[in-house]
Amino acid sequence: MQSRGALSIKVSVVISTYNRPDYLTRVIEGYLSQTRLPDEIIIADDGSRDDTAAMVAALRAAANVPIVHVWHEDRGFRAARIRNKAVARSSGQYIILCDDDCIPAAALVEDHLRYSRQGCFIQGHRVLLGAGISDSFSLEDRSLLRLLDLARKGQANNIKNALRLPLPLVRISQSLRGIRSCNMSFYRNDFIAVNGFNEDFEGWGKEDSELAVRLYKYGLKRKDLKFRACCYHLFHPYYDRDNLERNIGLLEKAQAASGYFCSNGVDKYL
Is 60 exceeded by the pLDDT of residue 189? Predict the structure, then answer.
């Protein structure tokens, strides 16, 4: 069910990034050309070099949407911390999370807002692009005919996620399967209630699943939205996964806990 008046909600898009100004440029441009523009874009910068700041400043000067650049020092992969800082700076009632490697479909913001509902967070889906096309993939390449051509060339997978059917497939669950914060949205108050991302997570992996666990314990359900809210994931090498085993342990700790509030979260920035 769509929320009445959902499109009038003030929405903040939070884009996490690290030293990928070429990718980030196209992602921001994707959000600046939406069918329903975001009310603000917050760049959650995990310690990028000065070229990212320069690019963001240039886009900000010409943008018709406020763009805020939130940066902290590079001390390794600290996505949980920088996202918390970015959400703390946001002013929207509703938050859409994405990454610097995910170009949004033209109606992604509209889709997240139309299907937002109190008591739920939304999980969108993605098309996976290959190494041979990611450096040049543009907003014009999002058409289904172009994606079919790329699929034939082995440069696009899961293109069914780009289909925009008359009615989306909506599934309500409390599953952790397929949780990805590169295309996730929620009410800001719900994020604050569970104290946001757990900053004990450092290094790649599972901080988004752990957030979902606590949102479930808080009482939310996941609204899985297919054939709407698609993004196009640009290829990049795998992140260092040296901390993955430790992060899995933190996820298991959250699953075993009775509460939903993490001690090392967003509250310190509010």
Answer: yes
pTM above 0.85, yes or no: yes
Whole-angstrom Cα distance, residue 201 to residue 203? 7
Give the pLDDT confidence of 83-103 residue by residue, as tens digits.
999 999 999 999 999 999 999
Looking at residue 86, what is its pLDDT?
A: 98
Question: Which long-range CB contacts under 8 A does 236-244 form with residues at least 24 apart?
Answer: 236/20, 236/23, 236/101, 236/134, 239/77, 239/204, 239/205, 240/77, 240/203, 240/204, 241/203, 241/204, 241/205, 242/203, 243/77, 243/202, 243/203, 243/204, 243/205, 244/203, 244/204, 244/205, 244/206
Nearest Cα to Cα of residue 112 among 97, 127, 92: 97
